[in-house]
Amino acid sequence: MVLMNDVYRYIENNYQLNEPIFLSELNIPGMKAVSVRQQLKKLTESGRLKRFDTGIYYIPKKSMFRSGSTLSVDEVIRRKYLTDGENCCGYVGGILFANQLGMTTQVPRAYEIYTNKATTEYRETKLANLRVILRKPYCAIDEKNAVMLQFLDLLKEIVDISEVDGEELTNRLISYMKKKSIGFENMRQFLPYYPERIYKNMYEVGLLNGVSA
Questions:
Q1: Is residue 132 pLDDT above 50, yes or no?
Q2: Whole-angstrom Cα distance, residue 194 to residue 188?
Q3: H-run or E-run covering 131
Q4: CB atoms closer than 10 angstroms to residue 190
Q5: Can you tell me the distance from the alpha carbon of 80 to that of 171, in angstroms, rounded to the nearest whole number?
Q6: Engineering a disulfide at 56: which of 52, 92, 124, 205 sits with its beta carbon 3.0 to 4.6 angstroms away?
Q7: Whole-number Å distance between alpha carbons of 137 and 134
Q8: Cα–Cα dist 74/114, whole Å
Q9: Span 91-106, pLDDT tens digits
Q10: At a CB cut-off of 8 Å and minimum separation 6, what does 7 contact?
Q11: In this predicted model, what pLDDT tens digit does every residue of 151-185 receive, in sequence order?
């Protein structure tokens, strides 16, 4: 019981309520990994912690529901794949990003993530019951280029996934570019990393003139 309380005290001092706790990152001074794992299991059985998925726990907020509060999938993905400590190292892409921009009504069956943490060009994994596709970016993602690379990845497949077309699509894309301060000059240094079809797509959606104007 003393050991379990020590582990809980450490977690309570280092994590907020409903903040993902990754077992792989949990380093409690003077305690072996196997012992930490055993105590997390006991804390989960006692209800002081909740298990989101294998190796992922959290301190639940009090809730009006008997089962207690749940952990946000978006927050788990952000912490697991989109940041590396305090630094940006990934972003969402594919249909999910297009949906967020209102360019498709399709509801993605999976989270598509571009992240520096990906070790292969394409890998599928599971997070709780959610299918996650991990993609290696064309070049390393950081705080300065993340918005640009995310937009270029959208352009790479925009013709195939957008339900909006013509002038409306052109205007939406240009509006987003202005909002995010994306210009052709900014793009130029990253375009060589992408397949040639991105130029064809940019022409088809009316961006080549719009961007350079």
A1: yes
A2: 11
A3: strand 130-135
A4: 16
A5: 34
A6: 52
A7: 9
A8: 14
A9: 999 999 999 999 999 9
A10: 28, 31, 36, 39, 40, 43
A11: 999 999 999 999 999 999 999 999 999 999 999 88
* Mean pLDDT score, 114-125: 96
Q: What percent helix, strand, coil does the chain show, rounded to 5?
A: 45, 15, 40
- Can you name the residues that pair with 53 across neighbouring β-strands? 56
Look-up: residue for tokens 């006692």?
Answer: 46
- Can you tell me the distance from the alpha carbon of 31 to that of 160, in angstroms, rounded to the nearest whole number? 52
Comparing CA positions, the residue from 31, 28, 62 lying closest to residue 48 is 62
Check pLDDT > 90 for residue 143: yes
Cβ atoms 155, 207 nearer than 8 A? yes
Vertex 100: Cα angle to 95 and 103 (nearest 5): 65
Place of tokens 């993605």: 108
Q: Give long-range contacts, CB 8 A cutoff, 24+ apart: 58-63.
A: 58/15, 58/17, 58/18, 58/19, 58/20, 58/21, 59/11, 59/12, 59/15, 59/16, 59/17, 59/18, 59/19, 59/21, 60/17, 60/18, 61/17, 61/18
Average pLDDT over residues 16-43: 93
Q: C-alpha distances in angstroms, 211 versus 122, 140, 165? A: 30, 24, 17
Residue pointed to by tokens 């529901």: 65
